[in-house]
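Support case: S-adenosyl-L-homocysteine complex. Customer-provided input:
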Amino acid sequence: MKKIFLKPGREKSLIRRHPWIFTGSIDRIEGKPESGETVMLVSSSGQPLALGAYSPQSQIIVRIWSWDVEEVISPDFFKARIARAVALRKKPLLPDPTDAYRMVFSESDGLPGLIVDRFGSSLVCQFSSAGAEFWKQPIVEALMGIMNWDCIYERSDMSSRRHEGLEESTGLLAGIEPVKPVVITKSGRQLEVDLASGQKTGYYLDQRDNRTLAGGQADGLEVLDCYSYSGGFSIALLKGGAIHATLVDSSAQALEQANKNLLLNGLSADAFTLVEADVPKALRRFRDEGRSFGLIILDPPKFIESRNQIDKGARAYKDINMLAIKLLKPGGLLFTFSCSGHMEDSLFQKIVADAAVDAGRDLQILRWLSQGPDHPVLSSFPEGRYLKGLMGKAY
Ligand code: SAH
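Agent response - structure generated as follows:
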């Protein structure tokens, strides 16, 4: 096996079991490993430390597969890691029955660069690192070994693949082509998921518990669901007794899917309004029209992609939160989120606090929210906790 020697002192993060090695930590590379090949990391004093996947084009030049240098990284290794991830997601961790959850969550499940989402009897995979790409075939075989899925579909159409020297890639990996959307059932709510052309893997599974929580608070309220996508929150809110929901999203395709999903749940077409618009603009318009709501969801896309976007992103989060808080009736509830990994909890709380001040309102924080347990966080890899949220009450 080819070896990569670290600079003196650079073994610290590895000893702390952080799974990424950056180019700046490398002293020298023995031989010429190919992209995705398994390499052994060695300290400057010659001590073997870990096994990982080499990614020559990425700033993260190695992602760790194992801290046990005796482990054999082979198809069986992937089979075992995937089996562990599947076992974790059984009862009692997830409500039973559920047929939609994140089955493999990358670093957090010891499989850097691999995401597998389950939707009914289909799977959607993202391969985002050179190592995951290298082992794609054995990974697909391991997944097929769990059960005879109708379809395993690849949605590696994210720009981050370019950092790994990989092209975007989508299409069927196993089974039969998904000709129509898959219908999933989550906490008694039904939803159509378009595996081939939905956003990301088709549906945002990470918000399951937060949708249930918000739904439980919605009885009798007029609600506003900003960045609604396919209606996940609105279904929960209306089923929870909300008298009317306004969904805002800039994507016509998302709203069309939301419309279908709301009707699929037996909700009446006059219980909701779909607004195709930019959220900040729509919020300003609602303000100018003197509208107000009893409960508002703010679940925007990632505003911060890299460290140097933190300030700009923070201003964007503050703007929508300020506008939303202004639109809340006295005693109204806000569920506000950030899925930017670079946003720290403390900064998010400060942004929301500043937004409340600018809105001229008091805001009580009732809960700190995050992703569901099918998106676990490895204690040595806090970066895995990307979703932050607050539930607040405005006076
Ligand atoms: N709340 C959703 C997930 C939101 S994902 C759920 O529960 O499933 C973010 C959504 O924001 C996407 O649907 C995207 O189309 C939409 N979006 C992105 N930029 C937007 C903008 N400026 N205004 C309105 N919607 C936007």
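Residues 206-394 form a domain with the Rossmann fold fold (CATH 3.40.50.150).

Case will auto-close in a few days if no follow-up is received.
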